[in-house]
Amino acid sequence: MLVLVIGDLLLPYRALDLPAKFRKLLVPGKIQQVVCTGNVCDRQTLDYLRSLASEFHMVKGDYDEVSDLANLVLQYPPVRIGVVHGHQVIPAGDKAALASLARSMNVDVLLSGYTHQFEAYAYEGRFFINPGSATGAWSTEVPLPSAPTQAASTTSSQDTPEANKATETGKPVTSAPSEPVAPEPDPLEDGSEEMVLDIQGAVVVIYIYQLINNEVKVEKLEYRKPVETTDPAAEA
């Protein structure tokens, strides 16, 4: 079973739209379930996510008004997957706090969001996944990168070699044609993330899609639930 895991879009408050390169990948009918970790905020986008698969599950984020579920448990025998937005976890994204929540929900895998940072790790015999933000929305939990100052990003024309040569000769200098410049990646979309779980019995293959420098990069991880074996001698 293929399951899209997506969350923290925060449209239109902290992002303008789901990246076009992600929309191109999300073709209705190719996945069986959509699981949202919350904070969609936009009805049109919510309807779009619902249209991608026959089953849609969502928990309530701290900015959502469309869902009343604080958490839910999905069963893919023998794997149990819990879903929570994560704003209830204190400190945010804390491993011990998430592990305590996973124990209380009795799940093998816990999906959570809120921090807008992708994570996937094993801890205390369980597996924890944060899909990040599908729109690259900024988070109050992670400081924004500082922008370069005008003085640092702008070079005076008087300091260039061409300008110095023109001053010495008194003649204008013609520059060589510049090479075509590739479009800059949208800083508001860069860092957008989503993932697809391929659930095959006790094995969950995790495909992580990340938008980096305007290109979609894909990584693959795997979680395998330990299978309990019965000792025939003990049953005799």
TrEMBL record:
Keywords: Protein transport, Transport. The keyword Protein transport applies. Residues 143-161 have a biased composition (Low complexity). It comes from the Eukaryota. One of its GO terms (cellular component) is retromer complex. Residues 1-139 form the Calcineurin-like phosphoesterase domain. NCBIfam families: yfcE. Belongs to the VPS29 family. This is Vacuolar protein sorting-associated protein 29. The lineage of its organism: Eukaryota, Fungi, Dikarya, Basidiomycota, Ustilaginomycotina.
